[in-house]
TrEMBL record:
Source taxon at top rank: Bacteria
Record's subcellular location: Membrane
Location of the POTRA domain: 224-296
UniProt keyword Flavoprotein, yes or no: no
Name the UniProt record assigns to this protein: BamA/TamA family outer membrane protein
C-alpha cells in the first residue's frame, strides 16, 4: 500500500477514486467487488474468511485497497475455502455455489473515448455447507528421554503445566493452526525454563468425521544457565558501564526472554547503532551458555534545530530551538544535553499585544549512570531563563542537582536539590500592593533553596508510552533551607490507562496539590504557586487563567476592559479523562473531559465552584514528536469565569498526560 500522503497528493492532482491497486490497471476486469455475502458460514466471521481469499470488499476510503472482480478467481477461491475448512477440522465442508452479480458503471463524461464507462460494482454470494467438525479424542505428551525438571525441579515444566500450554482441547475441533501453536508454546515454555535445545515433534492420527488422536514427543535436552557475558565492538564506550546494565544475567537459568533483555538493556544506553547477542555453549563450564554482545557504536554527537509557535487564548509565542546532545562525554558515558530556546511572546495575542517581550531559556544538563552507584543516575542542570507572564517579566538563573534510581522495574525514587534566584521587572503595580491576596508572598527579587524528593510507581506495560496500567506518584518540595520563603509543597497524582482494543485507549489523571507555609518566612513565590488552565490541565481555560486573580484599582471583574492577573493558589485539585482513538499510524482523535480548581487558602476546597470543560482533539505522531491540537469548552459558570471566553484552542507537543 502506498503512503497516505501520496494517496492524498494523487487525489488532489488527478481526482482519482482510490490510490492503491487502481482498477484500470487490472486486465480482464471492468468492475470492483463491492460486497461479499457468505451463506451457511458459522465457524468463521466474514473478516476471518476473506483474509484467505483473492476476493474482498472494496472500502469507501480512498487509501484502502480496491478488489477487482476477476471471474478466473472464483474456482481458486472456492478451493481455498474448502482447504481453510479442512485446516480447521471440517473435512466434509464444500462450496455449493459462488454467484456474482455485476452492475455496470455509469458512462463517464468529458473523456476522449466516447461511451467510456466507470468501473462497475460486483456483489458476490458464497453458499457453503460446513458439515460436522472432526473432534480431538486424546492428547498425549511423551518424553522419550525423560521428563524435564529432573536436574532442577521447576513447576513451570511439570506435565500439568505443559498440558496447559497445549492449545488443542479434547472434545473440540482438530485444527492445524492450534496444533502448530501448541508446538510453539511448548517449546517456548521449555526454553524459558532453561532447556535451550528442547525439541517438540507433533503427530496426529485423523479419521475425518470420527476423531483425531494427537501426540507430542518432547525431548527437553540438557538444562542450561547463563555463563559469562562478553562484549565486542564497544569502541570508545567503557566496558564496565555496559556490564553494569546486564550484571543480573550470569548464573540465571537460560531463557530467550533473558537474552532479549540483555540486548535491549545494552541498546538502551543509546550509544550503539546496532546490538546483537550471540549464544555460545561454554567451553570450560558444562551446562552454561555464554553470551557475546556484539555492538556497533553510534555517532556520539547530534544536533537538532527547529522552529515553532505556541497558541493559547491568553498567550502567543514564536520561538526557535536547538538541541545538542553528546552521549559519551569524557568517554565515561556521561550524557550532555544542551537545550536552547529563544523567541518572542505576546499576551494575550499577536494581534492584541497588551504585554510582550523576549523569551529565552538555556538549559545544559549533565547526566551519568554509575558515577556514585551502578544503578543510580546523577544529574546536574544549571539553567537561565528570561520570560514573561501576565503582570510581570523576569530573569532567573537556577541550579538543579539530583540522584535517581529504579528499584526493580516498577519503582523510581529521586532526590534533587534546587536553588533559584528570580528578579522581576516591568511589574504591574497591582502585584506590589501589600493589601492584595499575595501579601508578603511577592518579593522582588527572591532566592529559594529547597529539596525535592519524589517517588513514582509504574504499574504499566511501558514506562514511556503506557497503554494499560497505573502510574502512582508524589513530589514533595521542602522550601526553607535558605532564601526568602519556607513552605511544604506536596503533589500526589495517579494516572490510569486502559486499551481494550489496539485502536482505542482510555486515559485518566487525578492530581492534588497543597502548599503549607511555616515559620517567619512562610509562603511560596508567585511563580511556584498552583495554576490551572492551558493545554496540559483544564483545556476550556486559557493558560494559568483558572486561578485566584488580583485586579487593578477601579477594575470591575467581568467588564470588557478589566483584565485580572493570575497569582496562583495554595490548594489545587485536577481531574482529566480522555478517549484516544487511532485512525491511522500517524493520526489519532481524542475526546476529553477536564475538571479542576485552585484556591488561595491553605487546604481550602470549594467543590461547588469546581470548573468543568470538555472537547475534541487531534494528534499527529511524527518522527520529531507528537503534535497536539485541542479545543476545550467550559461547561459551567464559576466565579473565575467572569470575563473569560467560553472556549479555548490549544496547540502543543506530546500527550496532555
Amino acid at each position: 500500500m502506498r503512503p497516505l500522503w501520496t494517496c492524498l497528493f494523487g487525489l488532489v492532482l488527478a481526482v482519482v477514486v482510490g490510490c492503491s491497486s487502481k482498477l484500470d490497471d487490472v486486465r480482464g476486469s471492468d468492475a470492483y467487488i463491492k460486497d461479499v455475502k457468505f451463506v451457511g458460514v458459522e465457524r468463521f466471521s466474514e473478516k476471518e474468511l476473506l483474509q484467505y481469499l483473492h476476493m474482498g470488499e472494496t472500502s469507501r476510503l480512498p487509501w484502502k485497497d480496491r478488489y477487482a472482480f476477476l471471474p478466473a478467481n472464483i474456482p481458486v477461491d472456492a478451493a481455498r475455502i474448502v482447504e481453510v475448512y479442512k485446516a480447521h477440522g471440517y473435512y466434509d465442508a464444500e462450496v455449493l455455489s459462488i454467484t456474482p452479480r455485476v452492475k455496470a458503471g455509469r458512462v463517464r463524461l468529458f473523456t476522449r473515448t466516447p461511451g467510456e464507462r466507470a468501473p462497475g460494482k460486483a456483489t458476490i454470494e458464497v453458499v457453503v455447507r460446513e458439515g460436522k467438525p472432526t473432534l480431538v479424542e486424546t492428547i498425549a505428551l511423551e518424553f522419550p528421554d525423560g521428563r524435564p525438571g529432573t536436574e532442577v525441579p521447576d513447576p513451570k515444566v511439570a506435565e500439568v503445566a505443559l498440558r496447559k500450554r497445549v492449545a488443542l482441547v479434547t472434545g473440540r475441533a482438530f485444527e492445524i493452526p492450534l496444533l502448530n501453536r501448541s508446538v510453539e508454546q511448548l517449546l517456548e515454555t521449555l526454553r524459558e525454563a532453561g532447556y535451550a535445545k528442547a525439541e517438540v515433534k507433533e503427530a496426529a492420527e485423523v479419521q475425518p468425521g470420527v476423531g483425531a488422536r494427537v501426540r507430542f514427543e518432547i525431548r527437553p535436552g540438557p538444562y542450561y544457565k547463563i555463563g559469562e557475558v562478553r562484549f565486542e565492538g564497544l569502541g570508545g564506550v567503557p566496558e564496565r558501564f555496559v556490564a553494569n546494565e546486564v550484571d543480573y544475567a550470569p548464573g540465571k537459568p537460560y531463557s530467550p526472554r533473558l537474552v532479549k533483555k540483555v540486548e535491549a538493556n545494552t541498546y538502551g544506553l543509546e550509544v550503539f547503532d546496532t546490538v546483537t547477542v550471540e549464544e555460545r555453549p561454554s567451553e570450560t563450564k558444562k551446562g552454561t551458555i555464554d553470551l557475546v554482545v556484539k555492538a556497533r557504536p553510534a555517532k556520539p554527537q547530534s544536533i537538532k534545530l527547529g522552529a515553532g509557535f505556541g497558541l493559547d487564548p491568553v498567550r502567543w509565542e514564536q520561538r526557535a530551538s536547538l538541541l545538542y546532545t553528546h552521549k559519551n562525554l569524557f568517554k565515561n558515558l556521561t550524557r550532555f544535553d544542551l537545550r536552547a530556546r529563544a523567541g518572542y511572546a505576546e499576551l494575550p495575542s499577536m494581534f492584541n499585544p497588551q504585554e510582550h517581550g523576549p523569551i529565552v531559556k538555556l538549559e545544559p544538563t549533565l547526566r551519568q549512570k554509575g558515577l556514585i552507584e551502578k544503578r543510580t543516575v546523577a544529574s546536574l542542570s544549571p539553567t537561565f531563563e528570561l520570560g514573561i507572564w501576565e503582570g510581570y517579566q523576569f530573569y532567573s538563573p537556577t541550579m538543579r542537582a539530583g540522584l535517581s534510581r529504579f528499584f526493580t522495574r516498577f519503582v523510581e525514587a529521586e532526590l534533587a536539590y534546587n536553588f533559584r534566584f528570580v528578579d522581576f521587572f516591568n511589574v504591574s503595580p497591582t502585584l506590589k500592593g501589600e493589601n492584595s491576596i499575595l501579601g508578603l508572598d511577592f518579593r522582588d527579587p527572591y532566592t529559594l533553596s529547597y529539596l525535592e524528593p519524589s517517588l513514582r510507581i509504574y504499574l504499566t506495560d511501558s514506562v514511556l508510552r503506557p497503554k494499560n496500567g497505573a502510574i502512582l506518584g508524589v513530589v514533595y518540595d521542602i522550601m526553607g533551607l535558605g532564601g526568602d520563603f519556607s513552605a511544604h509543597r506536596v503533589r500526589p497524582s495517579i494516572r490510569l490507562y486502559w486499551t481494550p482494543h489496539w485502536r482505542i485507549t482510555f486515559a485518566g489523571r487525578f492530581e492534588m496539590g497543597w502548599i503549607v507555609p511555616f515559620g517567619p518566612k512562610g509562603g511560596a513565590p508567585i511563580d511556584m504557586r498552583f495554576y490551572l488552565g492551558g493545554a496540559d490541565t483544564v483545556r476550556g481555560w486559557g493558560l494559568r487563567r483558572l486561578s485566584p486573580q488580583v485586579f487593578p484599582e477601579g477594575c470591575v471583574p467581568g467588564e470588557a476592559d478589566c483584565r485580572g492577573i493570575p497569582v496562583g493558589g495554595n490548594t489545587m485539585i485536577l481531574a482529566n479523562i480522555e478517549a484516544r482513538v487511532r485512525a491511522t499510524k500517524m493520526l489519532s482523535f481524542v475526546a476529553f473531559a477536564d475538571g479542576g480548581d485552585v484556591r488561595a487558602g491553605v487546604n481550602q476546597f470549594a467543590l461547588s465552584q469546581f470548573n468543568y470543560s470538555a472537547g475534541p482533539g487531534v494528534r499527529l505522531d511524527t518522527p520529531i514528536g507528537m503534535f497536539r491540537l485541542d479545543v476545550g469548552f467550559r461547561l459551567n459558570q464559576t466565579e473565575y469565569a467572569l470575563g473569560q471566553k467560553i472556549w479555548a484552542v490549544h496547540f502543543g507537543l506530546g500527550e496532555a498526560f
